[in-house]
Amino acid sequence: MKPVVAQNPTHPRRGRLDRKLYGLRYKIECGFHTLKRFRAVATRYDKSASSFLATVHVACILAWLN
């Protein structure tokens, strides 16, 4: 995994920030945040993997409809 978080500007070895990659990472993190707002997804109530996947699908559909 390649880190894309901006470094401290006062740090002597300042790396370049890839804004496109940083924007994609931000969108993915927001997507996970949206999914974790559903309690059944965040706490994983389901016992089987197929049941949990169905819960994630329903949460994605509800998030997409909003």
What do you see in this structure?
There is one protein chain. The protein has helices spanning 19-36, 39-43, 49-65. The chain is an all-alpha fold and 66 residues long. It has one domain. The two termini are 31 Å apart. The mean pLDDT is 83.
Give a nutshell description of this structure.
With 66 residues, this protein is an all-alpha fold. The protein is built from 3 helices and no strands.
Would you spell out the secondary-structure blueprint of this structure?
Blueprint: H1 19-36, H2 39-43, H3 49-65
**Run of helices and strands:** HHH
For the record, the count of structural domains works out to 1
Helix content: 55-70%
Structural class: mainly alpha
DSSP strand count: 0
Could you tell me the mean pLDDT?
83
Distance, first to last CA = 31 Å
Descriptive labels:
66 residues; 61% helix; 3 helices; mainly alpha; elongated
